[in-house]
C-alpha cells in the first residue's frame, strides 16, 4: 500500500480505537470536532448501530462538524442549547477532535480549519477530551512542524493585534486569506478573522533555566506564558493553543470543566498501526 493509503487506514483504526475505549454506552452528550480524522470518529460511532448511539446527543464545534453529524443521522444539539442541570449547562461526557500539532505533553495547536473558538468551548465543556490524528501531527514541541499559532481576532482590531504580535517576537504574523474559496480574509463561523502567528518552538517547563526563562526574549516563549500574554491583547477573541490541564487533572483541582488538553491522543502511523499517547 502507498504511504498515504496506509496513513488513511491507520487514521480510521485510530478513530475506531478511540471510540471503543472512550465512548461508553451510558454517555449522553458527546462533542464532535472537525477535520479529516473526525470523519472516521463519526463513522466508528455510526458503525456501533442505533441501539448504541440512539440515546446520545452530539454537539458540534462548527459548521463542518454540524453537517457531519446531520449527514450521519445522529441527534444534533448546539453547545448553547444543551439542557440545564442544577442551574448549569450539562457537561459533555467526552469530546473527540483532531489537532494540527501535538507535543510530548499533549499540548495542542488547533485552528487550521478556523474553528478554534468553538473547538475550545466544546473541549472545556467536556469531562474528557480525546484527540485523534495522524503521526505527522506528533512533535516534541509546538511550532516545530505546524509553524504558526492561529489567533481569532475582531476584524477592527487586526492591525493593532499584528503590531503587538511583532513586538512579542512574531515578526511575520499575517491575516489568513480566504483564498482559494473566497476573496478577502478568512472569516470564521463567528464573523471574526484569523491571524497566523509564527513563533520559535514553544518551551515546556522542563526547558526553562536561569538563562532561558521563556518570557519572550528573542521571541522564545514558554507555552503557558505565551498563551497568557496573547489573551491579554485587546481584540484577541481566542487562541489556538490548548494547554495547561487535562480532564483528569482538572477533576482533582477546583477547575472541573476548564480542561483544554486531551487525556489521550490516538495517532495513525505510517506503517498502518495506531500509537496512543497518554497524559502523564
TrEMBL record:
<dbReference type="GO" id="GO:0004751">
    <property type="term" value="F:ribose-5-phosphate isomerase activity"/>
</dbReference>
<dbReference type="GO" id="GO:0005737">
    <property type="term" value="C:cytoplasm"/>
</dbReference>
<dbReference type="InterPro" id="IPR004788">
    <property type="entry name" value="Ribose5P_isomerase_type_A"/>
</dbReference>
<dbReference type="GO" id="GO:0008615">
    <property type="term" value="P:pyridoxine biosynthetic process"/>
</dbReference>
<dbReference type="GO" id="GO:0009052">
    <property type="term" value="P:pentose-phosphate shunt, non-oxidative branch"/>
</dbReference>
<comment type="pathway">
    <text>Carbohydrate degradation; pentose phosphate pathway; D-ribose 5-phosphate from D-ribulose 5-phosphate (non-oxidative stage): step 1/1.</text>
</comment>
<protein>
    <recommendedName>
        <fullName>Ribose-5-phosphate isomerase</fullName>
        <ecNumber>5.3.1.6</ecNumber>
    </recommendedName>
</protein>
<keyword id="KW-0413">Isomerase</keyword>
<dbReference type="InterPro" id="IPR037171">
    <property type="entry name" value="NagB/RpiA_transferase-like"/>
</dbReference>
<dbReference type="Pfam" id="PF06026">
    <property type="entry name" value="Rib_5-P_isom_A"/>
</dbReference>
<comment type="similarity">
    <text>Belongs to the ribose 5-phosphate isomerase family.</text>
</comment>
<dbReference type="GO" id="GO:0006014">
    <property type="term" value="P:D-ribose metabolic process"/>
</dbReference>
Amino acid at each position: 500500500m502507498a504511504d498515504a493509503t496506509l496513513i488513511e487506514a491507520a487514521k480510521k483504526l485510530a478513530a475506531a480505537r478511540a471510540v471503543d475505549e472512550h465512548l461508553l454506552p451510558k454517555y449522553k452528550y458527546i462533542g464532535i470536532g472537525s477535520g479529516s480524522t473526525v470523519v472516521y470518529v463519526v463513522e466508528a460511532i455510526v458503525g456501533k448501530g442505533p441501539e448504541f448511539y440512539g440515546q446520545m446527543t452530539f454537539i458540534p464545534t462548527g459548521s463542518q462538524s454540524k453537517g457531519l453529524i446531520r449527514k450521519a443521522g445522529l441527534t444534533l444539539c448546539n453547545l448553547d442549547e444543551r439542557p440545564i442541570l442544577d442551574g448549569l449547562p450539562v457537561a459533555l461526557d467526552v469530546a473527540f477532535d483532531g489537532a494540527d500539532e501535538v507535543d510530548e505533553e499533549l499540548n495542542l495547536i488547533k485552528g487550521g480549519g478556523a474553528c478554534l473558538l468553538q473547538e475550545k468551548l466544546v473541549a472545556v465543556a467536556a469531562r474528557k477530551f480525546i484527540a485523534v490524528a495522524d503521526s505527522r501531527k506528533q512533535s516534541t514541541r509546538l511550532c516545530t512542524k505546524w509553524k504558526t499559532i492561529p489567533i481569532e481576532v475582531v476584524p477592527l482590531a487586526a492591525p493593532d493585534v499584528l503590531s503587538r504580535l511583532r513586538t512579542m517576537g512574531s515578526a511575520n504574523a499575517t491575516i489568513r486569506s480566504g483564498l482559494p474559496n473566497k476573496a478577502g480574509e478568512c472569516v470564521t463561523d463567528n464573523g471574526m478573522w484569523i491571524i497566523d502567528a509564527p513563533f520559535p518552538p514553544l518551551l515546556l517547563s522542563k526547558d526553562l533555566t536561569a538563562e532561558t526563562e521563556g518570557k519572550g526574549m528573542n521571541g522564545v516563549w514558554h507555552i503557558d506564558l505565551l498563551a497568557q500574554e496573547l489573551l491579554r491583547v485587546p481584540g484577541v477573541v481566542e487562541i489556538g493553543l490548548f494547554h495547561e490541564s487535562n480532564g483528569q487533572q482538572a477533576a482533582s483541582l477546583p477547575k472541573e470543566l476548564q480542561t483544554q488538553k486531551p487525556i489521550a491522543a490516538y495517532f495513525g502511523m505510517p506503517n498502518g498501526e495506531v500509537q496512543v499517547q497518554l497524559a502523564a
